[in-house]
Write a structure and sequence with these properties.
Blueprint: H1 14-26, H2 29-40, H3 46-70, H4 77-85
């Protein structure tokens, strides 16, 4: 008999983390409204809006990753805004 208890490791891979993040950001919305948007825009023109959205999302992700690497503190937006509005940051209006 085996008396050892199996140990579960608390870890996720990059692929799993990306899938979780995409699920949180995208959700089910695009799949539900896709046909409505295509019908409203009279054909495949809605793809241009999706491509523009993808490009803007990529740019936004690059900005947030740079902010996160520059200010590696828990709290996200709060810390970024606090750093930007502090008198020593050089970012406030004079």
């Amino acid at each position: 008999m085996h008396s050892e208890q199996p140990k579960l490791e608390r870890k996720i891979s990059l692929l799993q983390a990306t899938a979780i993040n995409m699920t949180d950001m995208v959700g089910i919305g695009p799949f539900v409204v896709l046909s409505v948007v295509a019908e409203t825009m009279k054909g495949p023109w809605f793809l241009y809006a999706w491509i523009a959205g993808a490009i803007l999302s990529f740019i936004d992700a690059m900005i947030w990753s740079q902010l996160g690497s520059t200010y590696p503190l828990a709290g996200g937006s709060y810390n970024f805004l606090k750093s930007a509005s502090s008198p020593n940051s050089g970012l406030t209006a004079t």
